[in-house]
Every structure is written in C-alpha cells, then in structure tokens.
Write a structure and sequence with these properties.
This protein is of the alpha/beta class and 415 residues long. The chain has 13 helices and 18 strands. The protein is globular and about 65 Å long. The chain binds ligand LLP.
C-alpha cells in the first residue's frame, strides 16, 4: 500500500497543515469512522449467545473515546480506581464495568465494592482480602489457562512465566476461600497477552480455559480477555486479524462447552488495541536532519515521551511523510533513522527505516498510534503532553484533549 492516509481519506479533506497550525505538534489525531467501525466489529465477535465486549480502557482513556464505546454498545474493563472513575464519569453505569485487578490494596477493592462494580481477583491472597472486605459478596477470579501470546515477552500475561492469575492447580483453594467468606464465584476471566495476529494460541488458551471452567458450578459469566492484533505493517500489505474465520473457530469451542456445561453463561471479551489503534495518526514535525557515521537521522518532536512503544518494546509503527499537505510518494525510499527530541540514545521512533527522503519542515505521520500511545505518554524532560483531536464523521475537527501547559507541570509543587 502506498499510503494508508490517502487510501482511507484519514483527514476527510481537512488540510493537515491547518490542523497543526491550530493545534500544534506533536498531535494525536483520531478518525471517528475508523474508531466506530472497529468498535462495532468487536461488539459482534459472538452473536449466537449473550455476549459483552468490554473495551479495555487502558489502551486509551480519552473521554470522547469512552463515550464512543458506550454509544457502540460496548461495556468496559478497568485496571485501577482511576480507570473506574473515568468510566463512571464518562457515563458507564456500574454494571457495565469490570474491575480486572492486579495486586491492589484494600482501598481499591473497597471503591469497587462501594460502587457495585464486579471485581476479578488475581491471586488467592487477593481473594482472601476481598472476602474479608465483602463477606457474602460476588466476584470473579482470573485463571491462568496455561498458554500465553503477545508481541513481546513484556506483554505475555499467561503461561509459565507471568505474575498474573491463579494457576489451575490452585482451584480447590479458590473454593476453600469462597466457602470461608461465603463468596459466590460468579465468573472467571483470562487474558493471554496483547497483540496476536495468529488466533491459534488464543484458541488453544480458550480450549484450556473452557475445560477449567467446567470445574466451576453455576458460572454467570466467562471472560476470555483481549489481545486481538492489528496490522502495524500495513504499508507492507500486512493483512488484518482474520476476524471472520476466528469467529467461526471460537464459536465452535463455545458450542462444545455449552453442550457439556448444560447452559450458556454470559460470554465476554476485553479488546483494547483492536478498538482504537488504527483510528489514530500521530503527527510530528521534522525539526532537523543530519548524517552521523553514515546514518541519516531525522529529528522530530515525537519523542519517547509522546510514544514510548518503539523504545519500550522495539515496536514498529509505519510512518508516512507529509509535505505541503500531500503524502510524499513511496516510489523512492532512503534508509533513515527517525528520532525524537528526548535526551536519551534510545529515543528512536524508527531505526534504519526505508522512507521518502525527509526534509526539515515535513510532517511525520505515525500510523496506528491510538492504543497505548497517549495512554503511556509522559512529561519526561519537562515536555508537556500533546493534544488530541478528532476528525468527526461529519468532517469537522474537534479538540478532545487540550495540550498540557507549563502551568500544568508546575501545579503539583508547593512553590
Ligand atoms: N484485558 C487485560 C486483563 C489486559 O491486561 C489487557 C492489556 C487487555 C485486556 C487489552 O489487551 P489488548 O486487546 O489491548 O491487547 N502497552 C502494551 C500493551 C499492554 C497490554 C496490557 N494489558 C503495548 O503497547 O503493546
């Protein structure tokens, strides 16, 4: 593909230069149509049984995005008190929120209990804590299905090497703790890891998980977690996650389970990245170019403070170059290393990347930046965090989070 931006008319006819003139760079720009399309897709993963897709808000907590998820019929999962508060503030009723906790204190569990939010506990000791706070209550337990998957070892959350979930061999202890505190284990959940393009390991985990599920009586819900991938190498024609064939395989496993279990509990999933990643292009300005020991460096204002994924996981994000409001053709490519403006050698956005030759003043448009982009950004090097805008379905451009100011940075100090 020569240009994703042109193929989908990402900016809907708006001039990129006028957008950055008004809002500055670096700038996260979302496209509402793409966002709604992906959110709609995940709401339809299972259609035969009662099913909820919980948007995993850790990928992106922008209020406008949360409200869009709500209007697309999604439920949500939260990882912290802050995320639960964001969801409540965005208008999610408590019964649409699932708190998938990990190593939390009594105060976080108490917040969920007080707000009638369903909680998943991820160890026996946390189940004890929950039981002591909420005798006779209801909760879920996160189980390790024994198989993990993901784009980097840092994001694999099941299998042998992980801090997450309760192992299958400890299931009897779950029942003992539940008896002790008169708890109802209403649901079980898993999450194998983030970003798989091949559904096979996930389906294997589902198989194991459903085998384990049969050890629990009267389950109200079973939550399979998230992790569905998106094509980060789309300019090299990487294909989408095979949602249609995946759905068919998934449904087969669920059919078999329902036949044996005797009834269908509510089924859930927790996609984050799939919902938001592709709906966002991150715009940065090329401020300098230079040659160091034979390497051509392109210096932008998209540092690791703005998008940390490449420095943290060596993640790949496609980049398009925009000059005079037009995407520069990829007919002639030159090897370049795209960096940010942070005082670290690891501040690399793309290493030895074949790109159109970049010039000072160009816009570097970083694709697929909507998931774990703004959510993981920081004000490192005292650079205020960027703004976010939405290209709405009607073509209008709306500011959905203002740029952080220097005053915002100073506000926490007693000076
Ligand atoms: N459910 C649970 C319990 C999770 O821990 C996660 C992500 C999700 C759902 C959503 O996963 P998704 O569908 O987005 O893959 N910062 C990393 C990804 C970390 C994911 C953490 N957990 C990255 O930028 O790739």
């Amino acid at each position: 593909m020569n240009s994703f931006i042109e193929k989908v008319d990402f900016f809907k006819g708006n001039s990129v230069e006028s957008i950055v003139k008004e809002y500055g760079t670096p700038l996260y720009v979302y496209n509402e149509d793409i966002l709604r399309d992906r959110m709609h897709n995940v709401s339809q993963i299972i259609t035969k049984y009662e099913f909820h897709s919980n948007y995993s808000i850790k990928a992106n907590t922008n209020f406008t995005i949360l409200k869009t998820a709500l209007s697309e019929g999604l439920y949500a999962d939260a990882m912290s008190t802050g995320e639960m508060m964001m969801l409540l503030k965005a208008g999610f009723p408590a019964e649409k929120i699932f708190f998938v906790s990990n190593n939390v204190g009594a105060d976080e569990l108490q917040f969920a209990i007080d707000n009638n939010i369903m909680v998943s506990l991820d160890s026996l000791s946390q189940l004890e804590l929950f039981g002591s706070l909420n005798k006779g209550g209801k909760c879920a337990v996160r189980i390790n299905p024994g198989v993990g998957a993901g784009h980097h070892e840092k994001v694999v959350t099941a299998g042998k090497k992980t801090k997450f979930a309760v192992a299958e061999e400890d299931i009897d202890k779950i029942f003992e703790i539940a008896d002790k505190y008169d708890l109802k284990i209403a649901g079980i959940n898993q999450h194998v890891g983030s970003l798989f393009m091949d559904p096979e390991p996930f389906l294997q985990a589902v198989k194991n998980f459903l085998r384990i599920a049969k050890k629990f009586e009267n389950l109200e819900f079973i939550d399979f977690g998230g992790g569905y991938g998106i094509p980060y190498h789309k300019l090299d024609d990487e294909q989408d996650f095979p949602m249609e064939s995946f759905k068919a395989e998934f449904e087969k496993l669920i059919d078999e389970f329902v036949a044996e279990y005797g009834y269908a509990p509510l089924f859930k999933t927790e996609p984050g990245r799939y919902c938001v990643a592709e709906s966002c292009v991150l715009l940065g300005r090329v401020h300098s170019t230079k040659q160091n020991s034979g390497v051509k460096y392109v210096g932008t204002d998209v540092g690791m403070n703005v998008l940390v994924r490449p420095s943290m996981y060596d993640s790949w994000h496609d980049i398009e170059i925009i000059r005079d409001d037009k995407v520069v053709s990829r007919d002639n490519l030159v090897e370049q290393t795209v960096t940010g403006n942070i005082c670290e050698s690891g501040d690399l956005l793309a290493k030895n990347r074949m790109l159109p030759e970049s010039k000072v003043g160009d816009i570097a448009a970083v694709l697929d930046a909507g998931a774990y982009g703004y959510a993981m950004c920081s004000s490192y090097n005292s650079r205020p965090r960027p703004a976010e805008v939405m290209i709405c379905s009607d073509g209008s451009v709306k500011l959905i989070r203002r740029r952080e100011t220097f005053d915002d940075l100073f506000r926490l100090f007693e000076v």
